[in-house]
Specification:
With 84 residues, the protein is α+β, with helices and mostly antiparallel strands. 33% of the residues lie in helices and 30% in strands. It has three helices and four strands. Helix 1 (14-26) links the parallel strand 1 (3-9) and strand 2 (32-36). It starts with a strand and ends with a helix.
Length: 84
Amino acid sequence: MSKSIYYYSAEWCEPCKALGPTMEQIAKQIPVQKRNVDYTDPAIIAEAKVRSVPTVVLMENGIEIKRFTGNKSFNEIINWLNEG
């Protein structure tokens, strides 16, 4: 099973700026692909159903497992990843 995270963000987004360093720490444990919504093809953003940032999406074998929106601490994200 191959898990990864898509992290949707924007340079102007204050919660994204706060979450950025945490996501860098998370990336040491699971692959994280950051997507800046201002520079990513709008069709990709629409297909991912991203309506606000930051949005973090857990993927497994190319299928969305779950997501959250907003800022979370490192421990909150680790708990989120480990939840059923």
